Amino acid sequence: MPNKKKILVTGGAGYIGSHTVLLLLENNFDVIVLDNLSNSSKESLIRVEKITKKSIDFIQGDLRNINILKKLFNENEVHAVIHFAGLKAVSESIIRPLEYYDNNFVGSLNLLKTMSESNVHRIIFSSSATVYGTKLKAPYKETDPLGECSNPYGTIKKNTEQLFSDYSKSNKNFKCVCLRYFNPIGAHSSGLIGENPSDTPNNLMPFITKVAIKKIDKLSIFGGNYNTLDGTCRRDYLHVMDLADGHIKALTFLESVSGVEFFNLGTGNPISVLEVVNAFELINKIKIPYQIGLKRDGDLAEFWADTTKANKKLNWKAKKNINDMVADSWKWQKNNPDGYSS
To answer: Which residues 6+ apart lie within 8 Å of 223 measured at CB?
Structure first.
């Protein structure tokens, strides 16, 4: 029986990382997780092991520590890397740009250098729809020109994509898929793993669930007079398990591609903030008090994906709808009122 392929997952203890690790194990891959636990919990991986009844090789470490990376690659035959690790708060990146460039870009550069030295040529990069900037009209296509990002977080994602593209021109063996996420929400249906923000949530769904569990008095909605049907922003919300499945499909795709390919991962169906709130109330039978406040700088009225390329080339399509997303989000929060500290 051939050896199982070993996948290195950087940032694998985080929200999207842990759900992807779960699917990797269920698809019979061996998994090494490298995570510095600066914004995540090892408990997520313990629970993944409980769900799958399989073990994870965990290393606590930082991508900026080149010695840890060299040791990891020297001691393991890594088939491919899925690269999630990075700070991820857009507003925080504006306040602390140097920290974001150091952690996110230098970390990615170190990873690519070590992969090159170790003759590891396959990587899936956790990118973002923020690379499209603020000037395009939805739906966004992979062939659209990348825009001027309004924050360092998005700029670094764009620069990291460029880093991989530039490197691919010098290494004909290099295979890379950059997955541009839209708005992942939801949790695993077991209610054992989910999104676990360490402080006041920046994203809509954990904000709603914190209100539902009465840790926050009411939801703040930023802007109610956009040019949409109900006046609130419309976004492409995607179930995290569908997103995780996109990485499994991308691993298969890597075997037959050369160079760098870019894919949108979304549903292609935008939903407004108020529609998400209404779905949460209807499915979970919980009232969510909210107030509509001022718009945030840089927020767009509408933002969603054209997923045609991922549907065709990756053989991937989002399967879960907004009702699944709100039900699984609430199950996770209800079962874990204090997240992984519960």
So the answer is: 231, 232, 233, 292, 293, 294, 295, 296, 299
